[in-house]
């Protein structure tokens, strides 16, 4: 079954001096201020499209990794993922770097890395970001 999720944005003014908001419409969990400066300089309490993409990529990868572990007969105690999405003005989004650490009882380092790589490729957000470089550092915690 397909699921559609929605977000809204409102922008006022020109690109560099204007400002706006983006709202998580489906969940209603929040409305966030956005500005060009938050996109290219310090965030100063505002967000950017890249930060929202990073949040989506980190959550999606964690879910995909957990699913791949389950298919291989492993259950993680915890998976922590950070996504760093890079934006270059005039060029666009150039990459997403995933840094993940997880506690997975009974798994070898080799299997852990193999499954992490499969999750990186299989994550639907990674698929949506296929035109950029996606890298992964995966650490198995003891």
From TrEMBL:
Sorted UniProt keywords: Oxidoreductase, Peroxidase
SUPFAM superfamilies: OsmC-like (SSF82784)
Region Disordered, residue ranges: 1-22
Gene3D superfamilies: 3.30.300.20
Record's compositionally biased regions (Polar residues): 1-14
Keyword Membrane attached: no
GO molecular function terms listed in the Swiss-Prot or TrEMBL record: peroxidase activity
EC number: 1.11.1.29
Top EC category: oxidoreductase
Classification via InterPro entries: KH_dom-like_a/b, OsmC/Ohr_fam, OsmC/Ohrsf, OsmC_Ohr_Peroxiredoxin, Peroxiredoxin_OsmC
Transmembrane region(s): none
PANTHER family: OSMOTICALLY INDUCIBLE FAMILY PROTEIN
Name this polypeptide is given: OsmC family protein
Species the sequence originates in: Pseudarthrobacter quantipunctorum
């Amino acid at each position: 079954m397909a699921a559609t999720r929605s977000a809204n944005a409102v922008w006022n003014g020109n690109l560099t001096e204007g400002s706006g908001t983006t709202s998580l419409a489906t969940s209603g969990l929040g409305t966030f201020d956005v500005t060009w400066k938050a996109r290219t300089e310090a965030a100063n309490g505002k967000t950017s499209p890249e930060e929202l993409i990073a949040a989506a990529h980190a959550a999606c990868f964690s879910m995909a990794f957990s699913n791949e572990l389950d298919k291989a007969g492993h259950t993680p105690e915890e998976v922590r993922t950070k996504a760093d999405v890079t934006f270059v003005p005039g060029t666009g989004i150039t990459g997403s770097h995933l840094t993940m650490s997880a506690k997975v009882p009974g798994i070898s380092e080799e299997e852990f890395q193999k499954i992490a790589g499969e999750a990186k490729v299989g994550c639907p957000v990674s698929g949506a970001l296929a035109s950029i470089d996606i890298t992964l550092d995966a650490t198995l915690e003891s």
